[in-house]
Amino acid sequence: MPKIAITVDATVASTIRRDDEPPALSLGVQPEAHGARGWPVGLGHVVDTLGDDGRPLEALVLMCEPALPVDDLPAWPVGVLHFSTQGRNVDEVLCVSENPCFVGLVDVCDLPHWHAEPDVWAAVLARLTPGSAYRVAGLGPVREANERLSAAHHCYLQLTGCLE
C-alpha cells in the first residue's frame, strides 16, 4: 500500500464502525478514540497531486480521531467513490489513516465489514458539504485509486518541474 498525505479541510462524525463494534448509543457507552456512533471522516485533498480539473485530488479519509483543518494526515487509499452531484460526475479517493486499527481495511471489499457502504460515504459527504445532494454511481477498487494517484502525482511533478 502506498502511503499518501491528506490535507484535511473538514471533519465530521460518521456511522462507520467495525462489525465487532456494537453501536455505542444502544449500549450507552462511548467507544474509545472515536464518536458515539462511529469513526470520524475527514474531507481533504491529496498532497502533491494535480487532477484533470487542475486542482489536487479530493479524498475522504476514515480516521481514529478528528483532525483539525489543514492538518496533514498520513493515510493509504482503499478505493474510489464514484458519484454525481449537481449534474456533474465526481470521484473521491477513499482512504484510511495510517493507524493499526485500520490494518485490515485495504480494499473496497473490506468496507462492508466496517458498515462503510457507498451510501454511508455519500451521507458523510452531504454533512461535509451542506446543500449538496449526492447520487452514488459505484465504487472503484484500490487498484483504480492507486492509478489515479500515480497519474495525478505525475501531473504535479510535471507542473512543478520536478520530473526528470
Record keyword descriptors for this entry:
single chain; 164 residues; alpha+beta; Inorganic Pyrophosphatase; 5-stranded mixed barrel; 3 helices; 21% helix; globular
Short description:
This protein has 164 residues and is of the alpha+beta class. It has three helices and six strands.
Polypeptide structure, described:
The structure is a single chain. The chain is of the alpha+beta class. The protein has a single domain (4-160), classed as Inorganic pyrophosphatase (Inorganic Pyrophosphatase). Helices cover 21% and strands 30% of the residues. It has helices at 24-27, 118-128, 142-160, and strands spanning 4-12, 41-46, 58-62, 72-85, 88-97, 135-140. A five-stranded mixed beta barrel has the order 1-2-3-5-4. A hairpin with a 2-residue loop joins strand 4 and strand 5. The radius of gyration is 16 Å and the shape is globular. Residues 25-34 have low confidence and may be disordered.
How would you summarize the topology of this molecule?
Elements: E1 4-12, H1 24-27, E2 41-46, E3 58-62, E4 72-85, E5 88-97, H2 118-128, E6 135-140, H3 142-160
Parallel strand pairs: 3-5
Antiparallel strand pairs: 1-2, 1-4, 2-3, 4-5, 4-6
